[in-house]
Specification:
single chain, alpha+beta, Aminopeptidase, four-stranded antiparallel beta sheet, four-stranded mixed beta sheet, Cellulose biosynthesis protein CelD
């Protein structure tokens, strides 16, 4: 059974640094812009008013997926009555190919869990700066 840990503190995010490289290497999303080092540096220096909201998905204690999200500051508008998540690294810093990080063979389970999580909390996901073959596109349907 999959479990989701919601990481909202810098200390808990830092604890992922030991497991992150192996997961990234075992995923189809392996690129420099998804390394823990890149995203943690972005978080420390460029996150502005965002709140950390990383989803760590585990099966039997093993990290099999990470959704590296941040919660965007609320916008007062009738068109967006829900909270919006975006990928860490979003913005004008040159981060490309932002995506979910999922171990090979775990795609369907991780996508389903992340989609259920977002849906049950009335959260939207801003999918900018992603590849056309991004795993994140599977969250749409």
């Amino acid at each position: 059974m999959l479990s989701i840990e919601v990481i909202e503190s810098d200390a808990r995010f830092a604890r992922l640094s030991g497991e992150w490289p192996a997961l990234l290497a075992a995923s189809a999303a392996d690129c420099p812009f998804l390394t823990w080092e890149w995203l943690s540096a972005w978080w420390r220096h460029l996150s502005t008013n965002r709140r950390l909201h990383v989803l760590a998905l585990r099966e039997g204690g093993d990290l099999i997926g990470v959704a590296p999200f941040a919660l965007r500051p609320p916008e007062i508008t009738r068109l967006l009555p829900f909270r919006v998540l975006e990928f860490l690294g979003t913005g004008y810093v040159g981060s490309d190919y932002l995506d979910l990080i999922v171990a090979h063979g775990s795609k369907a389970r991780v996508i389903d869990e992340v989609a259920d999580y977002l849906d049950s909390r009335s959260m939207a996901l801003d999918l900018s700066r992603i590849r056309s073959n991004s795993l994140s596109m599977d969250l749409l349907g």
